[in-house]
Amino acid sequence: MKASVTIRRLRLASGLVLFAYIATHYLNHMLGLVSLDAMDRGGDLFIALWRNPPATAALYGALLLHVGLAFWSIYQRRSLRMPPWEAAQLLLGLAIPPLLLIHILGTRIAGLMFGVQDVYAYVLLALWVADPLTGLQQAIVLLVAWTHGCIGLHFWLRIRPWYPRWSPYLYALALLWPVLALLGFAAAGREVARLAQDPSWMAAAAAEIHFPTPDQAALLYRMEHLGWALFAALLALTLIARMVRDWRIRHRALAVTYPGGLRVELQPGATLLEASRIGGVPHASVCGGRGRCSTCRVQVLEGMEALPPPSVEERRVLDRVSAGPGVRLACQVRPRGDVSIVPLLPPTATPRDAHDRPGHLQGHEEEIAILFADLRAFTRLAESQLPYDVVFLLNRYFRAMGSAVESAGGHLDKFIGDGVMALFGVGDPAGTGCRAALEAARLMALNLEEMNRVLAQDLAEPLRIGVGIHVGTAIVGEMGYGRATSVTAIGDAVNIASRLEELNKELRSQLVLSAEVALQAGIELPHAVRHEITVRGRQEPMIVLAIADARGIPALAAPSPAPRLGRRRRAPAEH
Questions:
Q1: With contact defined as beta carbons under 8 Å apart, do 429 and 460 qualify?
Q2: Domain 359-570 carries which CATH code?
Q3: How many CB atoms lie within 10 A of CB 309?
Q4: At what angle are helices 84-104 and 214-249 packed, to 10 degrees?
C-alpha cells in the first residue's frame, strides 16, 4: 500500500514539473503576438530557467518517470475498463512522446550533437516555412499535452472545497492559454516567413543558427523512427506482460458479490473498484481510484477477514467522512478471498460527496423538533394573479419564512409547494430544538404581519399561515439522488408534525404544537387552548396546544446560527 501511495505522489510531482514546463513554454509562444524579438528575449529567460543542470535533470527525469509510470499503470491494472475521462487522459498521455520526439531531437539533441542554436527563428523556419506538416504536428502535440495536463489537474483539484468556486476562472484560463500560444506562434511564423524573403536576413540567420546538414537531418529522422519503434515495443511488452500475469494467476480467482446476487470473478491483486469495472457495475470514483475522495467507499457485508487492514492513508480518508464499521475504500482494498459488498454512494456522486462532513449526515436516529408551515387559501389567491405576481409573492413569502427559521437557529429542509418544512435541534438536545422551533413560529408570524403590511395594496385579503410543531425521534441524514440531495428527516414524528399543521384549519388557529414540545422547551403558553386529538396512524390520543396568534409566544433567547447541513431544494416530500 505504501508503494502505491509513493507511486501516486511521484506521478503527481513529475506531472506538475512537466506542466510547469509546458505552461512557461507556451507563455514564451504568446510573446509572438508582440514580436519575434520579444519571443527571443523571452526565450533567453526560458532557457535560463530550464537549461541549468538542476532544472534539466528535473525536467528529463520527470519526463522519463511520467512515461514509465504510464506503462506501469497499464501493467498493474487488472482491467482496462475505466471511465471515459481516465481513458482519455491515458491515451493522450501515451500520444505525447511519439509526437514530441522530433521536436526534442531537432532542438535540444541537435544542439548537443551538431551545435545547432535552437533560437525561435530556427524553430519557426523549420516548422512554419520548411516543413509546415511537422509544424501542424507540433501544434497538435501542444493541444494534446495541455489537455492531458489539464485533465490531471482537474481531477487532482476537484475534491478541494475551494475548487468549485474558482473552477470557472481556471477553465477560462485553461482555454485561453493554448489559444494565445498558438496565435503567438502563428504571428511569429508569418513574420519569419516574410523575413525569409530577404537573402541578407537568411544569411545572418544561417550564420547564427548553424542549420543541420542534410545528412545530420536524416540522422535525426532515423533517431525519431527508432524512438517510435522503441516506444511501440515497450507498449507491446507491457500488454504482453499483463496477459502473462493474468494467465499465471487465473486459477486463483476469487469472487466479489454485489446486491442482487451479481458475482464478479477477480484475480488476486486487483482492487474492489476494478472488480466493479470488470463486472460493469456502476461505481462512483471521483478521484479515479487514487484514494483521495472516498466516493468509492463500500460496506463489506461478508468476508472482512479476507481484506488487509486499512493503510494509514485509507484510514485517514475514512475517518474524514466518519465511516462506520465495515466501510472500506474500494480503490484501496485488494481482497485475498471471497467478499460481499455494497457501494454506499450512487454512481453519480460528485466532488461535494468527498468533502469533510459531520458524521450525523451519514444517517442516524435523533430526537428533534419538526416544523411545517403552509399558506392558507393560496391557490384561490393565485388564480386571480398574473404568473409573474404569483412568483414574486411566493419568493417574498419563502424569504420571510426562511429568514425566520434561520434566525431561530433551524435548518430549512425544503419548500413543498407553498409550504415549508424545517428541522430544529439536529446535533443538539431536543429541548434546544423545541425552543428554537417555537421562536421560529413567532418570527414567522411577525414576518408575515410585516409582509401583509407592505403588500396591503396588492392583496385582496391578508396572507394567513398554519404552523405545526412536534418533537420526536426521526431518521436524519442526507437523502436524495444526484444533485437533488439534501439533509432531511423521515419517520413518524415528521408525519405527526405535518398533520398538526393541517389541524389549524379545524381548530381555527395559527399554530398547533404537541404538548411535549412545550414541556421540553420549558415554556409557559397561557393563551394556548388544550385539545386531546386522535392522529391518523396512532392508536393513542395525544395532547396538543392550539394558539390563535403565534406572535404572542414569549420571545426566547436568540439561539446560535444553524449550521449549513446541506443544500436546500424545492422538492416534493412524502410524509
A1: no
A2: 3.30.70.1230
A3: 8
A4: 150
Cα separation of 300 and 237, whole Å?
36
Helices (H) and strands (E) in the chain, counts: 17, 14
Grid coordinates representing 459?
392583496
Mean pLDDT of 531-541: 79
Give me the chain's average pLDDT, please. 85
CATH of 254-354, one of 3.40.50.720, 3.40.50.1240, 3.30.43.10, 3.10.20.30: 3.10.20.30
Q: pLDDT at residue 384 above 50?
A: yes
Paired with 299 in beta bridges are 327, 342
Q: What is the pLDDT of residue 573?
A: 36
Domain with CATH 3.30.70.1230 in the chain: 359-570
Which segments of the chain belong to CATH 3.10.20.30? 254-354
pTM over 0.90? The answer is no
505-509 long-range contacts, CB within 8 A, separation 24+:
505/376, 505/466, 507/531, 507/546, 508/548, 509/466, 509/546, 509/547, 509/548
pLDDT tens for 283-316 read 888 877 777 788 888 889 889 888 989 888 888 8
Check if the beta carbon of residue 517 is closer than 8 Å to that of residue 434. Answer: yes
pLDDT of 356 above 60 = no
What's the average model confidence in pLDDT over 256-265?
A: 87
- CB atoms under 10 Å from CB of 130, counted, come to 13
Helix, strand, or coil here: 292?
A: coil
pLDDT tens profile 403-435:
999 999 998 888 887 789 999 988 889 999 999
Compute the distance between CA of residue 475 and CA of residue 366 in angstroms, rounded to an integer. 6
139, 29 contact by CB (below 8 A): no
